[in-house]
Design brief:
The protein has 456 residues and is α+β, with helices and mostly antiparallel strands. It contains 14 helices and 19 strands. The N and C termini lie far apart (61 Å). The chain binds adenosine-5'-triphosphate (ATP) and magnesium ion.
Length: 456
């Protein structure tokens, strides 16, 4: 009997220890951040003139919230490793790990009060390893299955000039709608320059209008490419170091980033705008990244993130299957007859020593020159028509253009918007013009069959 009692006690202790390990892990983890994800963290936190932060690992805290109390919206194709990082079962109930931003001293208290109101344990738990970035987003690692991803919740303290930012559920829904659209059309359309970091999951607490948005790190965790934030490319030391690594001279650094950040970004924006009719409301450097190969050489591709906050051209979107999207849009951002565009790579930032005010102004002009050339090729709208719209530049801030979209050339382009979403015909039933159709990704059956045979 005594033996049985001590065996039971041992089992109970073992069971308790294993419970403890999953909610309060105190042992070294099996999985860590990948090399290139860590490099992203180091750039985000260390190579930004307006925000220097720690790149050290943090044992971040979260609340465990029963899924039944939350709104959810995620892609069916969401990586199961990521899904199981955020959702797990306890006592036959599905729970969600709701991130607490380690710097936030305000917004998570609303989440805590919400849990208490619903008689749910509001003790913060620890599970993820996390890293800060320049913005509200954090890079998280699931120490048990190795998933690396980015997660964003409200915080009243971020790097940079805009610090106190609530992440609302309303905004998270707009973000998800945009991402669903982009997720559907990107594989159907050729995009030579554009890479998107998609946001395949959002959770929400409707009652207090709080949201949590997950963002994919694409193939960064496999260490295939590096993603250099645009503010790091324009960082006094790091921008100069990478430019020189690629052969730039002391006086050619600004020119290097004009060629490898500013102009490719203009091409990426032309591709993105021609497929969606959307333009960032805040087109600053924190939302763009330069893709670099393993030797830190720019590949020519630009990565866009944080797609939610955008102007949308209704003339375009109403001629696609996604016309409904504008009925859930932020007030004043759905535009008819015109589209607000802008670019401000040093907006909210401090210029590097190697860039003069004139060079920055030239960045703005070169951006629009490149954008208009590429957008004209994609849309069929004559470049001369685009160029005649005046731009407004503010030094070390935004350059802006508001294009009127009422001309015959614009009307023709927007009439065929569905064709720029990979459809075979316009919404009216008209067959797509060859100009638009040639942007469609065609599956070459012979090539696909050969690839399958070779892969066996
Ligand atoms: N160089 C920079 N330029 C612009 N914003 C910066 C910069 N460095 C830090 N930031 C911070 O990044 C955030 C940018 O705001 P924005 O709404 O684009 O991003 P977010 O939604 O917080 O995060 P994410 O882009 O990761 O989704 C602000 O909090 C701002 O203070
Ligand atoms: Mg952003």
């Amino acid at each position: 009997m005594k033996n049985l009692k001590s065996t039971l006690l041992l089992f109970t202790l073992l069971a308790l220890t294993s419970c403890q390990t999953s909610s309060y892990r105190n042992v070294a983890s099996d999985h860590h951040i990948s090399n290139n994800v860590h490099q992203l963290v180091s750039w985000e936190t260390g190579a930004n003139a307006v925000s220097k932060r720690s790149n050290e690992i943090i044992r971040v805290e979260h609340y465990e919230i029963p899924l039944r109390l939350l709104q959810r919206d995620f892609d069916d194709s969401l990586d199961p490793q990521i899904k199981s990082s955020l959702m797990f079962k306890k006592n036959n109930e599905t729970y969600v790990r709701w991130l607490i931003n380690p710097e936030d001293s305000k917004w998570h208290l609303e989440v805590k009060a919400f849990l208490e109101k619903h008689n749910v344990d509001s003790t913060p738990k620890k599970f993820f390893d996390g890293y800060l970035t320049a913005s509200r987003s954090m890079i998280l690692v699931n120490p048990e299955n190795g998933a690396n991803f980015s997660l964003k919740v409200s915080t009243n303290l971020t790097g940079g000039n805009w610090t106190d930012k609530k992440q609302t559920w309303k905004d998270a829904q707009q973000v998800r709608n945009i991402n669903k659209w982009v997720h559907e059309i990107l594989p159907k359309m050729k995009s030579e320059t554009l890479v998107v970091m998609e946001e395949p999951l959002a959770m929400g607490i409707k009652e207090i209008d709080h949201g949590m948005i997950m963002r994919s790190l694409n193939n960064l965790p496999e260490d295939k490419f590096f993603y250099l934030p645009a503010f790091s490319a324009l960082h006094d030391e790091e921008g100069a170091r990478i430019a020189k690594l690629n052969g730039a001279t002391e006086h050619g650094i600004a020119n290097f980033w004009d060629k490898h950040l500013n102009q490719p970004l203009a091409n990426a924006m032309a591709e993105y705008f021609s497929m969606t009719g959307m333009w960032y409301d805040s087109p600053h450097a924190q939302n763009f990244l330069v893709e670099l190969d393993r030797d830190m050489k720019p590949t020519g591709r630009i990565v866009l993130r944080d797609l939610g906050d955008a102007y949308i051209l209704d003339d375009f979107v109403k001629n696609t299957k996604w016309a409904w999207i504008t009925s859930h849009w932020e007030d004043g951002k759905v535009q008819t007859g015109k589209i607000n565009t802008g670019i401000g790579l040093l907006k909210g930032n401090t210029p590097p020593k190697w860039m003069s005010g004139l060079e920055y102004k030239e960045f703005g002009w070169n951006f629009y020159r490149t954008f208009e050339k590429r957008f004209s090729e994609l849309s069929g709208i004559p470049q001369t028509e685009l160029t005649k719209t005046d731009s407004k530049e503010i030094i070390f801030d935004y350059s802006k253009k508001v294009y009127p979209t009422t001309s015959e050339a614009w009307k023709k382009f927007t009439r065929f918007a569905a064709c720029m979403n990979g459809e075979a015909q316009a919404l009216s039933g008209e067959k797509c013009l060859e100009l638009y159709e040639k942007r469609h990704v065609k599956i070459d059956c012979m090539k696909a069959a050969t690839a399958i045979i070779n892969a066996r």
